[in-house]
Structure formats: C-alpha cells, structure tokens
Amino acid sequence: MSTPLFAAQAVLIEGADAVAFANAQFTIDVGALAEGHWRWCAWLDAQGRALHVFALLRTHADALLAWQPLGDAETMRAALSRYVFRSKVTLRTLHEWSVWSLDAAQSTRPAPRTIAFENDGYAIALEGGARTAWLGPGVTDRDDDEARDRWRRTDVTAGLPLIDAATRAAFTPQALDLERIDAISFGKGCYPGQEIAARLHFRGGNKRRLRAFAFGADIDAPAPGTPIIAADGTSKGIVLYAARDALLGVVNDGDDETPLQIDATRAIDLSTIPFVV
C-alpha cells in the first residue's frame, strides 16, 4: 500500500534559461544532468554555507524541480527570484503537491538517479534501502505519524544532510558530507560559495563531521538546531533533524568518539550508528 507522508516542498524552475540559471547558483553541474535524471544538490551562500539541500530533478529539457525533503520551498523560491534578472526563467512553488512512499509491490523501483514519470508526478529511488518517493499533485488529509517517523529515520540512517530554517547557513559542504552523496562539483564554473568550498576541499581545514546517533525511543525527538553536548555541558555539535529514536547531527571532528548527549537537563545519551546505503 502506498502511504502519504507530507506536503512536497518543491520549486519548479522552467524556461529557456532554466538550466543555465540553476547551474550558476547550485553546487552540481546542472548542464550535465540528463533529462529524466536527478541528483542531490545544494545552494550555498557567499560564505560557502548551505542554505538549502534538495533533490534536483531534470524533468524536461527546460524544466527542473528542486524538492526539499526538509525545509521551506517558498523561502527558497523567493530568495532565488532575486537572481533572475533578465534570464528567461520562471520560478514557482508547487503548493498543492504531496510526497508519498510507494509500495514496492505496487510500483517498479526506478533505476538509481533516474525519474519515473507516474500519475502526473515523479517517482525516484532514495538511499536507505528499497524505498521510492513519489512527488505529485494533490493533497491528502490522511495522517500517519508512524509512517512519517519511519521515513525520517531512514533519512537519518542514510545520512541525508537535510536542513531547515534552524540550521540554514550554519554548515559548509564538508561538514554536511555533500561529496559522499555526489551533491557538489569542484570542477564546474562558479557558483555562490564555491571558492570557500573548494579551498576546504583541496587544502583541508574542515573540523566538523556528519554523524548519525541512536537514543532511547521513549524520549521525544529533539528539534533541529538542538545542541549536542558533552557530559560537562561543553558544546560538541548540533542536531540537523531526528526521528523517534535516531538523529543526524554535525559534531566537532573526533568528538563522535566521546560520550555525547542532548540537553543537560535530560541527559539523553547518544551512540553512533553507521550509515546505510
């Protein structure tokens, strides 16, 4: 059975200059992204810190869809619109679209990084096991908190570095491990923040790492931006997002080997867990 998850936070970028416009802003080589394919991607600020992390789908030759599994599409659209100038491109937030988890028994899993065009929407296979997301028109009043939590936990264990308003402009591509998910290019033309990101890539200097942690299932999931601390209260990192018993966070290099917890008043102990492709 296919299951509704949440409203799709997606921006449609279309027009004769859509690819060139996106290529000048985003971290991947958009021109090399073939029609009917998708990649993880990011948009950085001038200081080389991630504003948005998203899946970029090239749905047609002159159309792209930027889907944020976590975040706000309208914020991204409004910010991008400031850079359109004379480009032949239009930006539109897809307000009445939803994301569904497709049942493997009811649909053919798309090949990696390809788009399956289904029911006026798009299906893509995501990391973290045999799961497929469908993005398409329509809203649902069905409410399945358990399904959403399972989905988000799989995002955690897959190590997908998703950010929202609480963690926007806080981390470099290296801290978010964007290279691991092929979400950044250091060989394409210029884009915002490229110089700083490239310097960290080629010369080193990154001191923070993306890590997944498990914690007790009887505790409320910490909100994005929650501090990760040592037993003495020293700040060691920040939560990106969490599910019922697991979270993804960015911690200081080497500190994932020391005892960590969330919130000195609750002493939630954390234990590292490996990423699952």
Explain what the structure shows.
With 277 residues, the chain is of the alpha+beta class. The protein folds into two domains: 3-158, Probable tRNA modification gtpase trme, domain 1 (Gyrase A, domain 2); 207-273, Aminomethyltransferase beta-barrel domains (Elongation Factor Tu (Ef-tu), domain 3), CATH 2.40.30. It has helices at residues 18-25, 73-81, 145-158, 194-203, and strands at 3-7, 9-14, 37-44, 50-60, 63-68, 90-93, 97-102, 116-118, 121-126, 131-137, 208-214, 227-229, 235-242, 246-252, 260-262, 268-273. The strands form three sheets. Strands 11-14-13-12-15-16 form a six-stranded antiparallel barrel. A five-stranded antiparallel sheet has the order 1-7-10-9-8.
Q: Could you state the CATH homologous superfamily of the largest domain? A: Probable tRNA modification gtpase trme, domain 1
Largest sheet descriptor: 6 strands, antiparallel, barrel
Q: Which band does the percent of strand residues land in?
A: 25-35%
Derived from helix and strand composition plus strand pairing, the structural class reads alpha+beta
The succession of helices and strands, N to C, reads EEHEEEHEEEEEHHEEEEEE
Q: Can you count the beta strands?
A: 16
Global mean pLDDT: 92
How many separate domains? Answer: 2
Terminal Cα separation, in Å?
A: 23 Å
**Strand order in the sheet with the most strands:** 11-14-13-12-15-16
The CATH topology annotation of the largest domain reads as: Gyrase A, domain 2
| Radius of gyration, in angstroms, nearest whole number | 19 Å
Protein name: Folate-binding protein
InterPro entries: TrmE/GcvT-like, YgfZ/GCV_T_CS, YgfZ/GcvT
Keywords: Transit peptide
